[in-house]
Amino acid sequence: MEAFQKSTSVLWETGNYLAQLERENELIEKQLQELLGTPVLTEEETIKQYDLPYRTPSPPSSNRMKTDRESLYQQQVSYLENRIENYIDQIKSLENTIKEKDNYISQLEKRPQRAASPMREIMRDPPVIQTVFAANLKRREKELERKIVEYEKKMGEERKAMQRLQNLNRNLLGKFKEAQERESDIKGKMEKVYIREARANNLIEENQHLNIINRELHEKVEGLTSELSKMHENYNLLLSTSIDFEEKSQELYHLNQVLNQKLQTLLKNN
């Protein structure tokens, strides 16, 4: 009776431990399903998820938009790195749990046998419960190892996606620097154009001022020409008057001579 109670106690302890291991395995499976639940994204899906631009050249934008996009890329890369580190920590935790279970199985296998009993005789050769327990645990471990391998494969794909994002980020940074250089070159050329336009505007203003001066001078020349024409008319009038006056003076002089001769003749006769 006592042996039967002891065997029953051993079975009870083993059953409780198996139930505990079953709950722990279910919890581990749930964690792995959560870890493996996220589908593996291709490069195109990753770009769509994180709202990243494609490799085709994008139209020029402001410096603020480029800086925001570059900051977004860096945040996404940091997010992927943190996810990979979290996955690695969880894999290490799962490996430690498996090692602890292996150690416990080894301890159970190495535990000294108790006093013989009918139940012990059944369990001793072969150890039925331990064999079932070990087989079940080994099966769970294989499933966990398979899921860990799948997870490591997924993590490798995540790393490749992160590497592609880093390469894309480097390419975008290179294009951003090229755009900055082009913008600087365009600014230099625009400054030269502005200087030329300013000079042209100054020349236009000077030309307009010269046109105003030329128009004023032309008006003055026209006025002087009109005055000169009037002076010519007055001169011609004075010249004709002077000629008439000279002719009349000569006539008067001639008449005076005639009168003098007549007067002398009269004086002689008297």
UniProtKB/TrEMBL annotation:
SUPFAM superfamilies with a match to the protein in the record: Myosin rod fragments
Keywords recorded for this protein, A-Z: Coiled coil
Parts forming coiled coils: 77-234
Protein name, entry field: DUF4201 domain-containing protein
